Amino acid sequence: MKTLMLIAALGAVIPAAPVLAQHDHAGQAAPGRAGGGERPPGRPALREWTKQPLLIGRGERGERNSALVSPRNLAASNVTVFASEGAPERLKVDYPVESEGARISSVAPKTGNYHWVVAREETPEAIKVASTAWYFGNPGASPKDLLTVPKHELEIVPAPLPREHRRYREAEKWNFLVRFEGKPLASQPVVMETEFGSRVTAVTNAEGIATLVFPRDFKPAPEAAGEGDERRRRGGFVLSTEKTLGDKRYLTAFNHQYGQDPERNRSLAWGAAFGVLGMVAGVPLLRRRKVMEGGVDHA
Fold first, then answer.
1. In terms of C-beta density within 10 A (0-12 exposed, 13-18 middle, 19 or more buried), how is residue 28 classed?
2. What is the rounded distance in angstroms from the CA atom of residue 204 to the CA atom of residue 184?
3. What is the C-alpha R_g of the chain?
4. Do the domain assignments include residue 286?
5. 5-35 pLDDT per residue, tens
6. Number of structural domains found in the chain
């Protein structure tokens, strides 16, 4: 009888183990999205959650090699796309920023993988840079060498980027390189802000690497959300740093998306299960204590 009670209790709190998805095909490939998160597919986030420079993007419906990218919090007349491979004249292409944003594309219709996307605002007093990585859904060269090439004075570069069909996630630790004029910048503060209100600061080491742990700050999913919806949830984050040299201020930012920790609900369920197990296991001990103290057990 006790065994049956224990099995029933555990069954009530332990859901079926989720099957972790290897791919995310909701709209454009998940790594390609830049900026805000919890929103209907195809609609960029409009809520202001940071004052740092951003590039907010969305894939074009039915298109694997184009996207619409909008600069935020900086005045940029164009968006520049850097590619890992292709014809020399296509390795760096400028796209004008129009009313909806800049319509960017991969270096060739059948060439994909990560491209580096940048917007820049320059005045006599300051230079602001917004950067992101956009994933086009066709095979292409690794972005490893692309990321080693300096593109602006002050930069934040993922070291490395998530692999194909992967993404940053809550509670994960990732490294980012900060460099100034092509050289690693040591002892430089880097601030992470998330769409859900978290703010974390890290300082670069001697090699210019800042190590950040993504906060577990996703809000609970709606009750109607299914397992697939849980896996597809994502939010925006931005890393920023600044440096003043002489009379000029440099501000640079890298923004992208991160996903919910897939183990979050499973961990909560197992915690509850062990709590129930502990209570059930403790019943015989309580009865034995009552008998030893001269009590009467009528169970």
1. buried
2. 9
3. 25
4. no
5. 444 444 444 443 333 222 333 333 344 556 5
6. 1
More confident residue, 39 or 196: 196
Is there a domain that residue 4 lies in?
no
Which pLDDT band holds residue 284 (cuts at 50, 70, 90)?
A: low
DSSP-derived secondary structure letter, 219: P
For the stretch 166-210, pLDDT in tens is 889 999 999 999 999 999 999 999 999 999 999 999 999 999 999
Does residue 292 have a pLDDT over 90? no
Is 213 a domain residue? yes
Measured in whole angstroms, the distance separating CA 25 from the mean position of its chain's CA atoms is 17
Among residues 73, 76, 75, 74, the alpha carbon closest in space to that of 49 is found at 73
Domain range for 135 is 26-279
Tokens for 293? Answer: 């103290």
Residue 8 lies in a domain: no
CATH label of the domain that carries residue 88: 2.60.40.10
Contact 259, 234 (CB under 8 A): yes
Distance between CA atoms of residues 128 and 44, nearest Å: 22
Beta strand residue intervals within the chain, DSSP E: 54-59, 66-72, 78-82, 92-96, 102-105, 113-122, 126-136, 154-158, 168-169, 173-180, 183-184, 189-194, 199-203, 209-213, 234-245, 248-259
The pTM for the full model equals: 0.75
